[in-house]
Design a protein that fits this description.
The structure holds three protein chains of three kinds. Chain B is α/β, with parallel strands linked by helices. Chain B has 19 helices and 19 strands. The chains are: A alpha+beta, B alpha/beta, C alpha/beta.
């Protein structure tokens, strides 16, 4: 297992008022993403617990792209990863952000 | 005085030697080895029918049981290297040289035998190319073919998997060759005549029915959300955009996902009747929901698929069927149809390089490409316009009188950026080049050449290579959809954003695709059982796909 | 044969139970937006054992518990996530269900529903898991004795195996779908211990006709057979609540008699189809292909009525 932590500043807050959301399941090649709206509107923290060590650079790139594209200001995002491919991580993050934007 | 009939005389001699083993044309399975030893001569060119699906397995076992002192140095010219016997005969010295197209399950062993020098390789062809050479410089002396049934005159019913048989027989029978057919049963009257008896010299009643592999059955239960996301992009960003009605699909899960989204996602986009109506395609079970929902006008097939016979019989408006009701497939015609009459090919690959060349060959597997190089190429002989073809041609640019510019076939690679075990699909250099170097091949085994591919779809977006004007733009367009592979992470972010602004790269959000829709509930069928339900109980899946 | 078309509806009731996550099953099963979770993922009550094995944890440990309403009635619910560790019982996972069952005595819900999806006990925390199974079975009997119907719903990917199969055996009513499987030893376990001649775990048709929903319904191990949709499970759960038997001596003696008679009658059968034949099914081979409607019609035609006890 490896723990990773990323701190990002965003230009805007993620729209919506939902306090938390969870998506995905911890399984082989899959992950769960817990999103909580508990930070300043221009901050986003991502904490990752991953089953496969040694992919820190890839995680950094995936998270940076997600933050740039979705502007998830205000969110703490905590991830339990069962060894998902980067595309699954990207998709799950996008889905989580959309859930937080829903009424 | 010149003897113009040497081949004909040789053929008569072969038949004469074989006659004692036959009762008329009929040979019992137990006499196959005697028959083959009587017919074959050292150095003969032989087609041992190994199609994509139907296998002349009884004759293959017979050939590998021949005495190498009598039968040796054969030159095998066949589309598929599928059964172990297809390679055993090279180890035994019965065969020496090989020209083929596809070798899925035997890909690793072929690679080993090529390295070991046990096989003298001619070339790895695309199907049409090999068929073409049957009529020019690779005409078989002997064809060993397979069918479902024959009568005592040799009239042959191939069954729904007609596949390569007519082509092989045409080339052999009309050029002084000998044709031997194995059949599951000798009958008084065949359901329909696929091959007339005067082209078949001997009929062997096989000890067991020929083997058919369910190659085209993709269990909807295994389709992933990433594949659904990519399928949505392909439908919205390519099928809808270009109005693609005439098409061919590869056999991967990505294209199966597209088939399963037609009655749901594409229906919601109002695309019914405007896309995906005319197909060159094997009878994919995953297309059943689209057919049942009225999406599909007609399908011509390369071969058939296990379990689809009853369904096809009940849908003659959609499929090409004989007077007996069963499917008539034909690989040569369907490949030609895919080449000249389809506006789009979409399929997957294992590796794509920075120019857009792609290959499924790795250094330890030489699988061959079957029909993909043919489907996935722009036919320069094409002369009929279609809106799709013309639009793609305009995007490709060019100068001069528009009436003198040709259109373009859309050749789309649908690839996930990472394959199994996190192996990247995007590479700086294809493994095929390394293989070519090691085997001293003049040509690297490339499946789709860069100048044929028009779009790459990954979970990251669509790269439209038609719109790229320089090699640099092309490279950045490819890197821009290569995700988090090393190639993808090596992209020039600013340049990729410029390409995005020009519509050369389009992300899911640029296409208005909702990530929450990338869910398995969007599939028209989520299991093999759902497909059975859709078919009204007519689809009969093989046991390994059943969980009830 | 009648074949029903596959639904293309986006209604949650029409979604596949087998495909849905535990959370999606709960959301669709209960009245809209009535589910309230206890010890939710934001509390991060995760397994203390899995890190020792370098294995990833889940925020809810694969067990989601809470309360909600079913057609207006207050119910308590527990759902296993079959994709996390095969839905296996670990310490937290089990403790959440035990706690819910004990809370039922105070809450007095109209029913307590357990949405099974489990391969049994989690190997990495086997002692805690086995203890949890025992505590759960005891808590179920106590809840049932207090008049609370405990109803099991089985239709997930992992089926209901091992300790989950034992727990299911203590429920007042069981609802199962075709994809649901109910047993104690799984196919691979039987094959490993007894050989492939005894049970070929790769023979999928054999697995389903031995452990699948139709067989379990035919021999009375489950009380209702439903389509694989969230709506079908919801309707069956509603019907099961008033049908749940009292948990008294008479019920237990009837159950004992039922099980003894079943063993006497079918104990020597070599295949499920033999049992079906003895039950009066004319064409046992056709059973796996039957739709739910066809199967219900078959049940109605059988000479003997359904075996209710428990």
């Amino acid at each position: 297992m490896e723990k990773l932590s990323f701190r990002h500043a965003t230009r805007t807050a993620l729209p919506g008022t939902r306090a938390s959301a969870i998506t995905g399941v911890v399984a082989s090649g899959n992950l769960e993403v817990l999103l909580e709206r508990n930070l300043a509107p221009d901050a986003c923290h991502v904490e990752i617990d991953t089953a496969i060590a040694g992919y820190g650079e890839v995680w950094a790139a995936v998270v940076a792209d997600f933050v740039a594209r979705r502007q998830p200001g205000g969110l703490t995002i905590t991830i339990n990863d069962g060894g998902a491919r980067p595309d699954t991580v990207s998709l799950r993050l996008a889905q989580g952000a959309r859930l937080m934007e829903m009424p | 005085m010149t003897d113009w009939r040497q081949e004909r005389t040789a053929r008569e001699a072969r038949l004469e030697r074989a006659r004692p083993h036959a009762d008329g044309k009929v040979v019992p399975a137990a006499r196959v080895v005697d028959l083959l030893e009587a017919i074959l001569r050292p150095g003969d060119r032989v087609c041992l029918e190994g199609d994509n699906q139907k296998q002349a397995d009884c004759l293959a076992r017979g050939l590998s049981a021949c005495d190498p002192a009598r039968v040796h140095d054969l030159h095998m010219v066949q589309s598929g290297i599928v059964l172990p016997e297809h390679l055993d005969i090279f180890e035994q010295g019965i065969a020496k040289r090989l020209d083929y197209s596809y070798s899925g399950p035997q890909g690793a062993r072929i690679a080993k035998m090529l390295y070991g020098g046990q096989i003298e390789l001619g070339a790895v062809h695309t199907y049409l190319e090999l068929f073409a050479r049957y009529f020019i410089d690779l005409t078989p002396n002997v064809a060993l073919i397979a069918g479902v049934s024959a009568d005592r005159d040799g009239n042959l019913y191939t069954g729904p998997n007609t596949e390569d048989t007519p082509t092989v027989v045409e080339a052999t029978a009309f050029k002084n060759g000998v044709v031997v057919a194995q059949v599951n049963a000798i009958v008084d009257r065949v359901p329909r005549v696929d091959i007339p008896g005067d082209r078949v010299d001997f009929v062997v009643e096989a000890d067991r029915p020929f083997y058919v592999e369910p190659l085209f059955t993709r269990d909807p239960g295994a389709v992933t959300e990433t594949q659904i996301l990519m399928a949505m992009m392909a439908i919205k960003g390519i099928y809808a955009e270009y109005g693609i009605r005439r098409l061919n699909h590869g056999i991967g899960f990505g294209t199966a996902a597209i088939e399963l989204l037609l009655p749901t996602y594409a229906e919601r986009l109002g695309l019914k009747g405007r896309i995906a109506t005319h197909w060159a395609l094997n009878p994919h079970p995953s297309l059943i929901p689209a057919i049942e929902s009225g999406w599909v006008s007609q399908i011509h097939c390369f071969g058939s698929e296990v379990g689809m016979d009853k369904y096809i019989r009940a849908r003659p408006d959609v499929f090409f069927t004989g007077s007996d009701g069963s499917l008539r497939s034909n690989r040569a015609f369907c490949q030609t149809a895919g080449l000249y009459a389809c506006d789009l090919f979409i399929g997957s690959t294992l590796q794509i390089d920075l120019a857009g060349h792609s290959s499924t060959v790795t250094t330890n597997r030489v699988a061959g490409f079957g029909g993909a190089p043919n489907m996935g190429s722009d036919p320069h002989g094409r002369r009929h316009p279609s809106d799709t073809w013309m639009k793609a041609g305009r995007e490709a640019g060019g100068t001069g009188d528009p009436a003198l510019r040709r259109g373009r076939k859309l050749v789309v690679q649908l690839v996930e950026t990472f394959g199994d075990k996190l192996v990247p699909a995007f590479v700086e250099r294809l493994d095929a080049l390394e293989l070519a170097r090691k085997l001293k091949l003049e040509l690297a085994p490339v499946m789709v050449y860069a100048d044929d591919v028009t779009h790459i779809v990954t979970e990251e977006g669509i790269a439209n290579l038609l719109l790229c004007r320089t090699p640099d733009e092309r490279e950045q367009a490819i890197r821009g959809v290569a995700g988090y592979t090393e190639v993808g992470r090596g992209r020039d972010h600013a340049e990729v954003e410029r390409l995005r602004a020009r519509g050369i790269i389009r992300r899911p959000e640029d296409l208005g695709i909702e990530p929450l829709d990338a869910d398995r509930s969007l599939l028209a069928a989520r299991s093999i059982k759902d497909l059975v339900h859709w078919s009204g109980g007519l689809y009969e899946p093989p046991a390994k796909f059943r969980n009830w | 044969m009648d074949w029903k078309p596959v639904s293309l509806s986006s209604s949650p009731f029409d979604q596949s139970w087998y495909e849905a996550s535990a959370r999606a099953r709960l959301a669709g099963l209960l009245d809209t937006d009535t589910f309230q979770e206890f010890v939710g993922p934001e509390q991060r009550r995760m397994s203390p054992h899995l890190p020792l094995f370098d294995l990833p944890r889940a925020f809810d440990d694969g067990m989601i518990v809470g309360r909600g309403r079913l057609d207006g009635q207050d119910v308590l619910v527990a759902a296993q996530e079959g994709r996390f560790m095969g839905g296996a019982f670990g310490e937290i996972h089990g403790a959440k269900l035990v706690g819910l069952l004990r809370a039922a005595l105070a809450v007095k819900p109209a029913a307590l529903l357990i949405l099974f999806d489990t391969g049994g006990v989690r190997l990495q925390e086997a002692n805690a898991g086995e203890t949890a199974i025992a505590e759960i079975m005891r808590a179920i009997t106590v809840a049932r004795a207090a008049g609370i119907p405990v109803i099991g719903l089985i239709g997930g990917r992992a089926g209901c195996y091992g300790g989950g199969g034992l727990v299911a055996g203590t429920c007042a009513r069981l609802i199962i779908s075709e994809g649901g499987r109910l047993s104690v030893s799984g196919p691979e376990v039987i094959e490993t211990n007894k050989g492939a001649e005894e049970f070929d775990s790769r023979d999928r048709a054999l697995v389903w006709r031995t452990m699948g929903g139709k067989h379990r319904r035919l021999i009375g191990a489950a009380d209702a057979f439903v389509d694989d949709t969230i709506g079908a499970f919801r309707r069956a759960a509603l019907a099961a609540i008033p049908a749940a038997p009292a948990f008294d001596l008479a019920t237990l003696e009837a159950e004992q008699a039922r099980l003894e008679a079943r063993l006497d009658r079918f104990g020597d059968a070599r295949d499920a189809t033999e049992i079906w034949g003895r039950l009066g099914v004319n064409d046992p081979a056709a059973v796996p292909g039957l739709t739910t409607e066809g199967f219900d019609a078959l049940l109605a035609r059988l000479p003997e009525g359904p075996h209710h006890a428990r």
